[in-house]
Amino acid sequence: MYRPNNSAIDDPEVLRHVMTEIGFAALVTPHEAGIEVSHVPVVVREEGGASVIETHLARANPHWKLAGARSVLIFQGPQAYISPSFYPSKHEHGKVVPTWAYIVVHAHGAFETFNDTEGLGAHLDALTDRHEAGRAEPWSVADAPVPYVAALKRGIVGLRFVAERLEGKWKVNQHKSLEDRQGTYAGLMASGEQGVDLAQALASFPEGE
Fold first, then answer.
1. What does the pLDDT look like over 42-72, one tens digit per residue?
2. Distance (Å, rounded) from C-alpha 188 to C-alpha 198?
3. Does any domain span residue 35?
4. Domain span at 156
5. Per the structure, how many domains does the chain have?
6. Cys-Cys crosslink for 71: which of 29, 174, 186, 193, Cβ 3.0 to 4.6 Å?
7. H helices of 86-190, where?
């Protein structure tokens, strides 16, 4: 991924947090016949300093048969259009153009499969609990009939992906002048929920970065 120095984020703890918050990724695996792409919900954890990402695929999806092949998981975070009207400098010299703000994380590595009932159960519990947390009446896998869940487990394959390399990119105008950063912040704050997330990311950068 092209990452100018002012947009590169490499702190694994920060990247794990963002991957967890996004919770969904595109799994991309090149192979001899082309490129396989699957869109998957994920569980992210730290194990012994490594970033481990778990997901699952339908057994009918041939992607899982590429286990061991070099792959990348792409986590697309918030994104929003940046209008030149956000910049005070527009009125000074007019040398501004539209751009796009976004946050993205790439996890590089390879995945292995798992099919054991205990492993799949733990994965589905973790995935469900992560997204049901905070609900007034959180749903649990145990709420469904045991034979029904067992049949569903037979229709999926678990994937365990150990990230050998993580790279993040925060493109939120952090390289702009203080005035244009302030204008970007105000513009993004009025650009919907994703804009607000990007504005907050911009505010996390010290002045001059």
1. 999 999 999 999 999 999 999 999 999 999 9
2. 7
3. yes
4. 5-79+100-178
5. 1
6. 29
7. 117-132, 146-153, 178-189
